[in-house]
Amino acid sequence: HQFFIFFRKIRSQDKEVTNVFMGPLVSAEHLEKVRHYVDLAVKEGATIECFSGGYFLQPTIITGLQDSSPVNREEIFGPVVVMSPFSSMEEVVQRANDVDYGLCAVVFTKDINLAHRTAGALEVGTVWVNSWLVRDLTMPFGGMKKSGLGREGLLHSMETFTEEKTHCIQLSH
To answer: So what family is this one in (predicted)?
Structure first.
């Protein structure tokens, strides 16, 4: 319930407007891609909780989809969250890991032991607990499976974008 209240308060407008939490998507093409997933969810019988039109995509909560839906299985990269009921954390981990992607995950819980167990079991590059997008640029960031090509973050970026090479030169005989 609190998540829905928070989501409805998020403002999405032009960057020239003050007090904006979220700006536009990167391009018109990307906006259409994200809207495609929202439309697909509706066709598959989902309930759209917060979607509204306009050039700026408002934060959108989708409920009522099957795990097999592409909306649940692909990376959308837009202000869209799919919520599904579950019976246990083991079920959550199994369902989360049963996709081809693994960029990041968020776990909300008051039980720190459960948070550690769940974070360790999720096949993703980053797990946030009781937060989202808290990041230090020196920390590694990147996904697992088909999400990303290695790690970003100071030293990790240097390793990703460079190739070590050794030169051994004898200067005199």
So the answer is: Belongs to the aldehyde dehydrogenase family.
